[in-house]
Design goal:
With 231 residues, this protein is an alpha/beta fold. The protein is 32% helix and 29% strand. The protein is built from seven helices and ten strands.
Length: 231
Amino acid sequence: MANILIKADKINKTYKLFAEEINAVKDVDLEIYQGEFIAIMGPSGSGKTTLLDILGCLDSVSAGKLKVLDNDVSVLKESSLVKIRRANVGFVFQEFLLIPTLTALENVELPLLFAKLPQQRKLAVNLLQKVGLGSRINHLPKQLSGGERQRVAIARALVTSPKILFADEPTGNLDTKSGQQVFDIFKELNQKDGLTIVLTTHNFKLGLQAKRIVFLKDGRIVSRVESSLCV
């Protein structure tokens, strides 16, 4: 049986806005196994991004217990969460967040600098080739299409060899063709490389291509579906 990488037990996230409390995530139980490809879906405001941020150790829980790679992150300080993120987690966001003055190659290498890891130009080049950008490594972001910029962002997320890749609406700013190309990269990373992937999406057609779908509504998981469309 596959290893459990993440285990959420009745996790909650509450924000205070003046005198009002906003319950963004409510009593979520979730187990994520090694090698899974999960899409978190639901309407706007359902808590998808908040849940993803919590699972990826970008945000903390207000109540409940969360274990990530055998670490009880419910009780860890931010400095410890940073170490877990840098060593184990990759992130892809809707906004590509590339440095405009750096080439595609330099953008991919950047996390190695922040993580104080050896600069591995060959690895960065190989990752850009893997996402179909071998001929664009010296291009600046402004010289790339939206789909190409997102592929650079994926390569950047992979350069530290994460155990889990999180993606928040990674196709939200892309056209249909580019969005499918990006999703195909995720599927290949999962199926061929065994990478565990958890993403959020509004796109039902793309979401159904994940192996498992978790539906959120008002911060709660309302259903879970094993998809038969992941090919």
